[in-house]
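[step 3/7] inverse_fold.run input=structure_tokens len=169
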């Protein structure tokens, strides 16, 4: 094998891997479309967030290396969102959240497509919580939120990722 053949083989391999990754991005978009449908018929507002918002503005698409979709829903709409997901989410989709599952490992709600792990392919719904205006109270509030998220993750992530797969040497 010469240098040119090797480069062509590597390029074909990378293109194949990215095509597979791109198919996962398409599934994430399907989940977002379903989430949008449920929110639309129930007049529930949501907002794109984090890298998803950056990609929508900058790339008019998902960021090429981003596999999930992030959204915000106001905390005041939390109960209504849970209710409409239970009522209107199509059969091909499901959601998981700490209210449903006491061992749920993350702090956000995840909407997923059946047949795929909620740890791998999902739309994240972060509940948008207002913070106190006072700087000291805000710092304590945010510190408390970070601790709760960290403790939940430490407690529950071992249930979803086997010990042998957590770290690779």
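[step 3/7] decode complete -> sequence:
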């Amino acid at each position: 094998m010469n240098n040119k053949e090797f480069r062509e083989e590597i390029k074909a391999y990378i293109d194949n891997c990215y095509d597979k990754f791109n198919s996962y991005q398409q599934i994430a978009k399907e989940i977002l479309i379903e989430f949008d449908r449920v929110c639309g018929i129930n007049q529930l507002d949501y907002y794109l967030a984090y890298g998803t918002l950056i990609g929508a503005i900058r790339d008019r698409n998902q960021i090429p290396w981003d596999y999930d979709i992030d959204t915000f829903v106001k905390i005041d709409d939390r109960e209504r969102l849970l209710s409409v997901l239970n009522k209107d989410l199509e059969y091909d989709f499901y959601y998981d959240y700490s209210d449903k599952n006491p061992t749920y490992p993350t702090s956000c709600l995840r909407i997923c497509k059946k047949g795929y792990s909620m740890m791998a392919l999902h739309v994240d719904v972060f509940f948008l919580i207002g913070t106190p205006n006072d700087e000291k109270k805000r710092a304590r509030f945010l510190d408390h939120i970070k601790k709760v998220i960290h403790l939940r993750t430490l407690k529950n992530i071992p249930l979803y990722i086997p010990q042998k797969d957590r770290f690779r040497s």
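[step 4/7] annotate
DSSP finds five helices and five strands in the chain.
The helical segments are 3-41, 50-58, 78-88, 135-156, 163-166.
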